Amino acid sequence: MSEMIKTEKDYVSALKFVIVSYLPELNRDDVVQPLRGKRNIVFGNLEKIYEFHSQTFLQELEHCQEAPLHVGDTFLRNVSSYLNLYYGQRSSSCPHWSCNMESTPSIDIFAGTSRGPFIKYV
Which of 101, 99, 121 lies closest to 111 in space, CA to CA? Predict the structure, then answer.
């Protein structure tokens, strides 16, 4: 549990660093032309991801320090929020998460091996 909590704290710190150090740079008047108006394309909803990890997920993981068997419940309780933040919301025409990702190319890292197509990067 300690390693998981430390890793989550490191991730939250890295997100905060990007928000504090890099996001303001894209709002400067002298930002290079190709980046003007591209803040959401470059960083998406980074603030919402930071908010979720710092105010919800990290705190819930810390509560599992004394009861590590509850960590699975923490992941299951937050899976919908997590998928929403990282992959977008489900549309009303297709309520399954896979619909949003079908148009995204994926890479089968085990293609042509004896391990088969088990892991895909989307």
Answer: 121
Average pLDDT, consecutive stretches of 10 residues, N- to C-terminus, the chain (122 residues): 96 96 90 87 92 96 94 93 80 47 43 45 40
What pTM does this model have? 0.69
Domains of the chain: 2-89 (1.20.900.10), 93-122 (no CATH)
Are 90 and 99 contacting, i.e. CB atoms less than 8 angstroms apart? yes
CA dist 67 → 12, 76, 89 (Å): 22, 16, 32
Q: Which residues contact 24 (CB under 8 A, 6 or more apart)?
A: none
Distances (CA, A) of 91 to 11, 48, 88, 117: 29, 20, 9, 27
